[in-house]
Amino acid sequence: MDLPLPNANILSRKSAIVRRLQSVLPADAVIHDPAETKAYECDALSAYRCPPMIAVLPSSTEEVAAVLKICHEEGVPVVPRGSGTSLAGGALPTSDSVILGVSRLNTVLETDYDNRFIRVQSGRTNLSVTGAVEANGFFYAPDPSSQLACAIAGNIAMNSGGAHCLKYGVTTNNLLGVKLVTMDGEVLEIGGPYLDAAGYDLLGLICGSEGQLGVVTEATLRILPKPEGARPVLIGFNTNEVAGACVSDIIKSGIIPVAIEFMDRPVIRAAEAFTKAGYPDVEALLIVEVEGSDGEIAEQLSRIRAIAMRHDPVEFREAKSADDAAKIWLGRKSAFGAMGQINDYMCLDGTIPVSQLPMVLRRINELSAEYGLDVGNVFHAGDGNMHPLILYDANKPGDLETCEALGAEILKLCVEVGGCLTGEHGVGIEKRDLMGAQYNATDLTAQMAIKDVFDPKWLLNPAKVFPLAASESRRVA
Amino acid sequence: MRPTSEQELAEFIRATNGPLDIRGGGTRRVRDGTSLETGGLSGITLYEPGALTMVAKAGTPLVEITAALDAENQQLAFEPPDMRGLLGTTGEPTIGGVFATNASGPRRIAVGAARDFLLGVRFVDGSGNIIKNGGRVMKNVTGYDLVKLMAGSWGTLGVLSEVSFKVLPKPEAQGIVSLPGLSITKAVAAMSRALGSPYDIAGAAHLTETANDKPDTILRVEGTEASVTYRMGQLKTLLGDMGEVVTTLSAPDHWTWVRDLTHWHGGAEDVWRISAKPSAAPELVARLPEGTRVMLDWGGGLIWAATQPGRDVRATLGTFYGHATQVKGTGFPRTQPESPGVAALTEAIRRKFDPRGVLTLGLSED
Ligand SMILES: Cc1cc2nc3c(=O)[nH]c(=O)nc-3n(C[C@H](O)[C@H](O)[C@H](O)COP(=O)(O)OP(=O)(O)OC[C@H]3O[C@@H](n4cnc5c(N)ncnc54)[C@H](O)[C@@H]3O)c2cc1C
Predict the structure, then answer these.
(1) How far is CA A88 from CA A123, A348, B33, B141, in A?
(2) Which of the listed CATH numbers 3.30.1120, 2.60.40, 3.30.70, 3.40.1000 matches domain A343-416?
(3) Which residue has a Cα nearest atom 28 of ligand 1?
């Protein structure tokens, strides 16, 4: 994966830039010693590392604005960072860049239960947003598996999803407003605790823009009343085809479960070995979760059971207690960790039309054999968001490259069958050079035109999202 | 001009000097200019009920979409309003027009707006470029979300040629919980309490003009009959201290009435749409000129106001957290002015997608 060559002129001005940043931030908020900047050298796509020139940790919107103004004047690239859990290299620095971390911006500014929103600083972690409203019976719906660590800032930048987004939507469907600082230091309020303002949907544009349009310092988020209860069932099948048909039949029947998760045999076996969750040894497992009162849950589950029985499952296990429920989820929630026990892995994130599921899984198996690397599949089946996990050995020369080549093939396959390169993790550097598989030059130019508007000098996270060749004239202009 | 292919549409836009008057069904007149009808770009290209997705050419009549969905017991869950009665226009609404205006009805508070259901677009910008964004899958974060930008842009950035969108199953049963006789303040409090409960409210409106001249606060619950019955019972208990609570299973559909403002059809008044925090509704309604007719939707977050023609309610409302838009009537810019920073971004985006102004001229004078 290429990154642009560092700008020698910027590097030569490092100490002057540090001094200017120190003039607007407390001493401990400007990190420039190479021993310490190393802490910011990567995100969760840790195969790629590069310490930034400087890292800053502002504590207020005003400080963010002051930092950006200086970097804008100095022509220094800025890479915003939340908690650094991006799986796409979204927060990966270049050696001539300033990392702007929002971890110190973590206060709850306002909770309003009558109007059902919360306003927080963007560095606050996803789970602690729910934590702030839980006692009052509310929650914040998007729940990425990384929710203990990841920040709302990163969620907004990546438009993150979660296991329950089939019912509740992803970040963009739960975001009401942001405070955004543009690269020249201007502070903008976009949206707020009301719905569907007239004018262009700038909020929709900012969500998912991967830190390239501005730095989000505050967010107004929709909060929802907690359901009365929730219960999962586990359904095992002997073929992926039948499991896929069952998913489609459940959806067609008019029931929208909060989650339908899918695991294939390699993942089931790994998860079982790792957690002893009691999973059956089958080709495909579905976890279907429904919500409501006890009566409502029972009614939905009996319908799901009737549908599943038509497909002759190997196993249909209903959670009878909170313990059972936790066990059913345990294997799924530990799936990545379990695969990590076997080897290093790369997690892909393509989305496909649900109807293509059996065909795509078959093709992935063929590709896996061709490239000689094992692939396991975990899948948000209700919405077609796949997470193929490719196992490789980081210490074996050439394995990472083979793994990346296989990953690229799988993602192109997702696009070919009518899907897309990334459903929730973002493009970052990881899928940047594959963008041409999904979008032609005109499509990409239209997107880059948006960045031209928000950040005419292309200083914010410039080496991401767009193929370097496509963005080059803009970045060096 | 009525292009029958995207290519033809692109060539026409490249050759024209505009300004263009883009018409889906022609149910709303947005601006004067050379007419460009999208009706020639018509037809459902893909419908997968099991994946809850449909793809259609932008000029497809809404009735055709609805008929196909009906056959599978599915629907456009955001309830696009039919504004013809209110605006006194004719024509057949198109699916492109629905998304270009981001038009959403009462269920918006439960399931999201039109923009939340739009998955992908193909459009021709003001320079004649054919652009695609998004796709037909429900989760897609590949590149910037121009889909959201196109939703609600009223054709000022490009002419939609194809849209793909998410659909949802129709509920099997519907119930209405009604609280007659509440003041606006109490009505908003009741709606907030219900919306803050786990009983999945799919509509919350306060009507001030009813058959018996008593205001009525209505809540909609949807689902299976057993679930609807259960939740209506729970809501009756929850709201018992607010006064009389009447529950009706499969009530006659008030909701088209709320959605389309049926009771104001044929009136001479200007109509305004005010979006704000629900709890601000009582205060905002009090600030409206005397004699204004009002209806609240979205739990109080959407105030519909019918005023004597020629009055700018934004002047009377003063500053508040939200915005007011004129839906019917003339004489004012349709939308509320934005902050200078947002206005500058808006203008710059407009120039990128329509540098010659063929799509946007005339809009702001309307
Ligand atoms: C184990 C694991 C499980 C995961 N599970 C999921 C999952 O279920 N669903 C899912 O969607 N993702 C998942 N992820 C991916 C990741 O957690 C999300 O992308 C998350 O939203 C990133 O948040 P962060 O705060 O760590 O952001 P970072 O990694 O710090 O940054 C991510 C991007 O956001 C930008 N950014 C950060 N802060 C700001 C700001 N203030 N303003 C503007 N831009 C900013 C960065 O520049 C970067 O492009 C998972 C990751 C891991 C490691």
Answers:
(1) 19, 9, 46, 12
(2) 3.30.70
(3) A84
